[in-house]
């Protein structure tokens, strides 16, 4: 029996090991916004109320008594002109004298717009009183420092005080005239006004 040579099995060609593809790094998610409480708060300021230029009110003081009214004109932001008109009465030994008074004044305001503000006022006050057939007149200059509370609606409250200098007081019955010198006096003014335009 003849032995046959055995043929070796075929050898597969060498192939290098295949490595797994490199893992691609996972994309990071975008950063989260900071929480709402950490965000800076921006204050929103309301626009100032439109200044009003014309008004009327109740005004007393400046040596003119407790029954009065005033007209206010504010042509520019920090300046107003005020004309006070009063009915006046004064008791005398021989009766009660009745008359009128008026006081034009200029007021300089520290703050503009329809805002509460300190003010300084300068003006003149004139008064005329009549008792029977005798008429007395007098004029005073005054200076006040005060504060005016103002609201966007146009309502305002004014309170001020200062000094006044009363000039010569003259009384006449159309025949005889008597004059008397005045002097320095404390002064006070109070007003309730409404600016409507």
What's the SSE blueprint?
Blueprint: E1 54-61, E2 67-76, E3 79-92, E4 95-109, E5 117-131, E6 134-150, E7 155-166, E8 169-172, E9 177-180, E10 184-195
Antiparallel strand pairs: 1-2, 1-10, 2-3, 3-4, 4-5, 5-6, 6-7, 6-8, 7-10, 8-9
Structure description:
With 197 residues, the chain is mostly beta strands. The chain is 0% helix and 56% strand. The chain contains no helices and ten strands. It has strands spanning 54-61, 67-76, 79-92, 95-109, 117-131, 134-150, 155-166, 169-172, 177-180, 184-195. It has an eight-stranded antiparallel beta barrel with strand order 1-2-3-4-5-6-7-10. A hairpin with a 2-residue loop joins strand 2 (67-76) and strand 3 (79-92). The protein is rod-shaped.
Largest beta-sheet characterization: 8 strands, antiparallel, barrel
The Rg value, from CA coordinates, equals 45 Å
In spatial order, strands of the major sheet run 1-2-3-4-5-6-7-10
Number of strands: 10
Stretches where pLDDT is under 50 for at least 5 consecutive residues are none
Task: Sum this structure up briefly.
The chain has 197 residues and is mostly beta strands. It contains no helices and 10 strands.
């Amino acid at each position: 029996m003849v032995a046959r040579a055995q043929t070796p099995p075929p050898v597969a060609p060498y192939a290098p090991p295949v490595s797994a593809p490199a893992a691609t790094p996972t994309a990071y998610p975008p950063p989260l916004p900071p929480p709402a409480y950490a965000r800076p708060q921006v204050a929103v300021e309301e626009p100032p109320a439109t200044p009003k230029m014309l008004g009327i009110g109740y005004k007393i003081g400046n040596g003119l008594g407790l029954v009065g009214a005033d007209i206010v004109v504010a042509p520019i932001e920090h300046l107003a002109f005020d004309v006070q008109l009063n009915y006046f009465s004064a008791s005398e030994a021989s009766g009660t004298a009745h008359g009128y008074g008026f006081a034009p004044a200029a007021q300089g305001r520290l703050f503009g717009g329809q805002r509460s503000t300190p003010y300084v006022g300068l003006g003149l006050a004139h008064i005329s009183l009549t008792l029977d057939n005798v008429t007395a007149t007098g004029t005073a200059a005054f200076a006040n420092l005060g504060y005016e509370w103002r609201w966007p609606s146009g309502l305002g409250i004014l309170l001020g005080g200062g000094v006044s200098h009363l000039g010569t007081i003259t009384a006449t019955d159309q025949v005889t005239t008597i004059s008397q010198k005045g002097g320095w006096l404390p002064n006070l003014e109070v007003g309730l006004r409404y600016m409507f335009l």
